[in-house]
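Sequence in, structure out. Go.
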Amino acid sequence: MAAGLSGQKIPKEYGQTAPFFRLAALVVDLICRGASDLQHSDHRISVPPCAVISAWMANGYASAHLCNITALLGAAYAFGSNVWLLRYGPRMYAVCCKESTWLGKEAFSTIQAACFPEYFALQSGSCILALGGAPSSWAKLLMTIATMLALVNQLVLGPRTAQLMVKLYDTSTGSADQPLLDGSSDVKKTFGMVHGISMLLDLLNLFAVFAYLCMVAG
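Output:
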């Protein structure tokens, strides 16, 4: 068994893409649809309540004070959640690898797969709200960039990462650690590329939101 692995595989339910789109629909849709409906309409996402609120503020239907509060809270959440992930994600990974006899890399990946749908949905929603309360054109540009980056992670890279994580530890074609040890593994290469791009977008989102906060604070 390779170092840091427990030998367990990730349950297939954590590789499903439906939670990403279902939570997008909850943040995005005024109508809460059932899981059975979502299986046939994962990509049918309508306008979110947060987008409606954002447009409502952007068009002057809310007071400047309310817009400022909403913008700061949205940006603060997006910034804080990103910092938490980038700081404590590696820490959790290190602990799971160290305690591989009962946790292992598989436990870390399972926790990630379980949390990412909600994480990306809330990050996208908070960016959309901050966009609606942006006080200037430059602030709007920065938060538009941050919102687009968050949505790409939520609707494209996040679901793909979850699928690949399950395959990475799949024991049906051999030992659980084989894909991680085989540098030529297509699954490992694809996972590394997708996860790397996702982390890059997270960093770019962090910088955009930080610049936004600096701008509105001034």
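Check: The helical segments are 18-28, 35-38, 49-58, 64-98, 104-132, 137-168, 178-181, 186-217. Confidence is low (pLDDT under 50) at residues 28-47, 179-184.
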